[in-house]
Amino acid sequence: MQQANWQAELRKTKIDPATLLEDIGLAQNAPVLANQAAISFPLRVTDGFKNRIISGEVSDPLLRQILPLADEDLDQPDFSYDPLAEYAKQPVPGLLHKYYGRALLVVTGACAIHCRYCFRRHFPYAESNPASQQWQTALDYLARDQTISEIILSGGDPLTASDERLTGLVKSLAEIPHIKRLRIHTRIPVVLPGRIVDPLLDWLTGTRLKPVMVVHANHANELDHSVAVAMEKLKSAHVPLLNQSVLLRGVNDSVTALAKLSERLFEYGILPYYLHMLDPVKGAAHFAVDESQARAIMQGLSELLPGYLVPKLVREIPGKPGKTLL
Ligand SMILES: *Cc1c(COP(=O)(O)O)cnc(C)c1O
Ligand code: SF4
Is the distance from the beta carbon of residue 116 to the nearest atom of ligand 2 less than 6 Å? Predict the structure, then answer.
């Protein structure tokens, strides 16, 4: 029953930009929209997230994350289709093994929301997607490499997959003796909190693997009561909760916005983990914040907040053995 509900919600996330603008009272005051970019990476948003957009507010920080603006179609010389050189980093399709001890499995290419700044917006999911029958290849690779102690389920958003598929996958992962931790990278507890159902908690906590979940929110307005309820369920199941954000111009590029986000996260039982510098992906240049401004914001944050509420500012540099701390 619960399952049917979230799956039905997921099926109606694709929405026409004009309809969205009308729904949030911006039909008269509409910004110029993208043409090309909106075709290859269409607007997608859940009702829950849409309801948290402030009506009639053209510069709303949530709206900016999902609306395909004309800026995306502009030529952006330093912004590429594969900024992290990930295509070449797959030992088997859909498995990224860049860092010591952790491997990241692209469970699915699907997401409940399309974030315009996403570094995987051009990722060739069709070729890299290890559909169920192909998971075996990834599992064989993981079983062979005894240095891997943590598996990260990512995507797309791994929680768009059914609990039936995820149960089977996690059971197989738990059979690999050197894997200790099961990490989930997901935006779904924030954008589709109704997805946090009992069958999900069962596979997440039902094996010997120690779970940890890294959610993704960029602005305090993303976190409303429905999100608090989902987080409460995860906390009751003893799942440690962390958050990663991307530093985004016009969304959270101020000390005030990020301090508010950290405070709200803690209220909901989540600790800030990473604040990522934007990856230079084609179509996202209008979100870029330069490094000196980023450092100044971090300085301001650390003067305002306890140390444990200050996220680590990082950049991903292709070829490095981990994220680079700034
Ligand atoms: C970011 C990332 C990880 C996780 O890095 P942590 O610093 O452990 O959070 C693992 N694999 C890939 C490919 C990544 O991009
Ligand atoms: S992978 Fe994450 S950041 Fe990218 S579009 Fe999906 S939910 Fe957004």
Answer: no
Q: Is 271 helix (H, G, I), strand (E, B) or coil?
A: strand
Domain edges within the chain: 2-73, 87-325
* Strand blocks (E) in 102-196: 102-106, 150-154, 181-185
Query: Can you tell me the distance from the alpha carbon of 35 to that of 139, in angstroms, rounded to the nearest whole number?
Result: 40
**Span 96-123, average pLDDT:** 93
- Closest ligand 2 atom to residue 155 Cα is 1
Spelled out in words, what is the top-level CATH class assigned to the domain 87-325?
alpha beta
Helix, strand or coil, per DSSP, at residue 324: strand
Predicted confidence (pLDDT) per residue in 250-296, tens digit: 999 999 999 999 999 999 999 999 999 999 999 999 999 999 999 99
Q: How far is CA 140 from the centre of its chain?
A: 27
Q: Residue 95: which of 143, 27, 28 has the closest Cα? A: 143
Distance CA 298, CA 310 (A): 8
Q: Show the beta-strand stretches assigned E in 150-261.
A: 150-154, 181-185, 210-216, 241-246
* Token pair belonging to 15: 């929405």
pLDDT at 86: 76
Mean pLDDT value across residues 315-322: 94
In this prediction the pTM is 0.96
Q: Which two tokens stand for residue 19?
A: 């309809």
Number of other residues whose CB lies within 10 A of the CB of residue 49: 25
177 CA to centre of ligand 2 in angstroms: 31
